[in-house]
Amino acid sequence: MQKGNAKISMAVIRRLPKYRRYLAELLDRGVHRISSRELSKIIGFTASQIRQDLNNFGGFGQQGYGYNVAALYEAIGKILGLDRKYNTIIVGAGNLGQAIANYTNFEKSGFIPKAMFDINPKLIGLKIRDIEIIDADKMEEYIKENNVDIGIICTNKEQAQAVADRLVKSNIKGIWNFAPTDLDVPEKVMLENVHLSESLYTLSFLLKHNRID
Amino acid sequence: MQKGNAKISMAVIRRLPKYRRYLAELLDRGVHRISSRELSKIIGFTASQIRQDLNNFGGFGQQGYGYNVAALYEAIGKILGLDRKYNTIIVGAGNLGQAIANYTNFEKSGFIPKAMFDINPKLIGLKIRDIEIIDADKMEEYIKENNVDIGIICTNKEQAQAVADRLVKSNIKGIWNFAPTDLDVPEKVMLENVHLSESLYTLSFLLKHNRID
């Protein structure tokens, strides 16, 4: 199944978490199978789009039967890499960093927050849940000793690139960036940006044009 | 120019803030015009995609000249509805709500945080910058008296729908939702969700498949 993934477009990949979220709700409600038409009503994509998306992974839909909800949920989780655990650190222990540290859903999905880092002496030594805020000077050492996979950047825009450079030098595998800037990292490091302003500007577009999609 | 907007796909709309961000950087660097090829190198979309996207708004690209950076930046801002101000409230004054209240960039773009609301008596009366945290019981009254356009939901998943219902009843125009759930609101209310887990799962996909896009 994974063999063909190289061909799957990023647009499809970005829709997979949404499928997975709706499938989890169906499982909670005791629904074991669902047609692309029924799924279309719930999720808002066309039935044809759904069939096309899910055909990428083969073998879950059968004409006249529909999709096996549990099998599809699990398969999408595997494709998304949610069948393993990731050690993460949060760099920048301000409000946003603390909000992410407090967000237990990520941990339930396998993203384990091991530590937070900051340069503010007032924060160093504090704990959010059981996650300690450590002096940022010790970050490289910590990454190497604790097999950290993902660095979550919650600093301001000005510090973000320097933090990313240090993460890269420490052989981090992935960066989840919340700083409102585009980071420059080598291709071997996977980078995902959360540009909140892009989402907000989409909302202002919708407000201005009063558009329903 | 706005006449044709009804036809523009959401995929194009969601790329506009990125164009705008890169154009702002070019302006900062004193670049007054740029070709789609040069823009492609910076922004990472193909030159053909860029021409196609920007053709939707007409009149900014000229063969052999390229794009007028300042004019295009301003036009995209207008299309995105960034030529006016929006009064916003933040519902839920925990870490995430406070992070957003502290984020002055949104204010610079015209999204004015007027107040925050919470049910926690320990938070009520506190201020984040000059934004007061008010008792959630007073939310409806406040929205009506202060001409609030956008409600930003920073509560947990369980409270989010009830908050959305109250915002809708108070004739809010738009909702920016950070709670990890899909909200049910009438079509006249514009809704934009920030599903952070979708972004995180995209990163885990990239890590698992070691994919560079």
TrEMBL record, chains A, B:
Q: Which GO terms describe its biological process?
A: negative regulation of DNA-templated transcription; response to redox state
What's the superkingdom here?
A: Bacteria
- Enumerate the UniProt keywords alphabetically: Cytoplasm, DNA-binding, NAD, Repressor, Transcription, Transcription regulation
Record's Pfam families?
CoA_binding (PF02629), Put_DNA-bind_N (PF06971)
Q: Which residues bind NAD(+)?
A: G92, A93, G94, N95, L96, G97
Naming one, the record's GO cellular component terms include:
cytoplasm
This entry's Gene Ontology molecular function terms read: DNA binding; DNA-binding transcription factor activity
What InterPro entries has UniProt attached to this entry?
Answer: CoA-bd, NAD(P)-bd_dom_sf, Rex_actinobacterial-type, Rex_DNA-bd_C_dom, Tscrpt_rep_Rex, WH-like_DNA-bd_sf, WH_DNA-bd_sf
Protein localization: Cytoplasm
Q: Look up the DNA-binding region in the UniProt entry and give its residue ranges.
A: 18-57
Q: Which residues form the CoA-binding domain?
A: 81-182
- Family label: Belongs to the transcriptional regulatory Rex family.
Q: How does it assemble?
A: Homodimer.
State the protein's purpose.
Answer: Modulates transcription in response to changes in cellular NADH/NAD(+) redox state.
Protein name per UniProt: Redox-sensing transcriptional repressor Rex
Q: Which gene encodes it?
A: rex
